[in-house]
């Protein structure tokens, strides 16, 4: 059961703050019906019936002194109070009053706070004009409130169009989930043809299956990452059940961010465009766990450019940066698809060679060393830079089963390669 009082408590205050005042909802033709404090309860009941009203103001010398409702009279009858008694003994007093220019929001607040259904409206001299009821307020909702909500929704969606995140609304029919709205950011990313189409048209099925189950189970989901094409996205959202007996069972509100550049910036060295130290260390730990689980071997290689300081000192740091870039590009081109290379710091690099034993690693790295030796890098002022590099190889599990053990072993081999005259691989 929902009463008018319940409805009033849930109507947004913003609606009433749109300059709506009491005078805007008063009917000019409705005059105040009143009785005197000395009138009997039976007279009050008769006036109510004749005028089809549920409350009457009690006036004395044209001043409001109280109010009595049909509910009050029914309660008095149940209490066996004689209806010949005078109304002045049973009326409610003091009265809640307001003026025609009172903002309607204040009337609503009073009705909600005091749990009353009527307020007496008086003029500037406090002379009674009429009674405004909760029914008057609710009637005002019929057309104006729906228009207000529509305007508010349109304004909200215009604001959402300005957000950098992609906002998508999806309807769940039980059989499929259809995109019914998307903000400009989402339209620009995925195209206008996603509207009125299944959500799986632009979200990978395996990802949506997990997202859907999570939303239906716990009603929300946060920071789920998925890949589509060459882009990486992060998705959060919530589910609102709207099952009213029709086809629509609920709605999903999805918020998506393209985090491709964020991830690239957090994992890639900005100068050389290969992985950074943070990523390479994390990959090493994962490769150790994977190799333990599968009983595989793998090798890591620490590589250091020979006499790189001389390039910086003689040709300048900009030329040094050009050499680092060319050096990184060559390594990235020559390694296998399963191999990973990252800049470990300065002119030091690390390679991780999955499922690669010591002998195979030596063969791969010696071929790389030979290509580096043949390399000439064009730098500033039309000059050429010749470079060589030294390499230290360590293999899991022979040289260690932890990242620290492997790094120490690889670093020791690199030092050995340097001591052997540089441009050398030590394993």
Task: Kindly list the characteristics that best describe this protein.
427 residues; alpha+beta; 5-stranded mixed sheet; CBS-domain; single chain; 18 strands; 5-stranded antiparallel sheet; Alpha-Beta Plaits; 15 helices
Structural notes for this entry:
This protein has 427 residues and is α+β, with helices and mostly antiparallel strands. The protein has 3 domains: 4-142, CBS-domain (Roll); 163-262, Beta-Lactamase; 268-426, Alpha-Beta Plaits. It contains 15 helices and 18 strands. The protein has helices at residues 4-10, 13-16, 41-51, 70-78, 104-114, 134-139, 141-162, 184-190, 205-218, 260-267, 277-294, 308-315, 317-334, 358-373, 403-419; strands at residues 34-35, 55-60, 63-69, 97-98, 118-122, 128-133, 166-172, 177-182, 220-228, 231-241, 250-258, 298-305, 340-345, 348-353, 376-378, 384-386, 389-396, 425-426. A 5-stranded antiparallel beta sheet has the order 8-7-11-10-9, sandwiched between helices. A 5-stranded mixed beta sheet has the order 13-14-12-17-18, sandwiched between helices. It has a 3-stranded mixed beta sheet with strand order 1-2-3. The chain is rod-shaped and about 120 Å long.
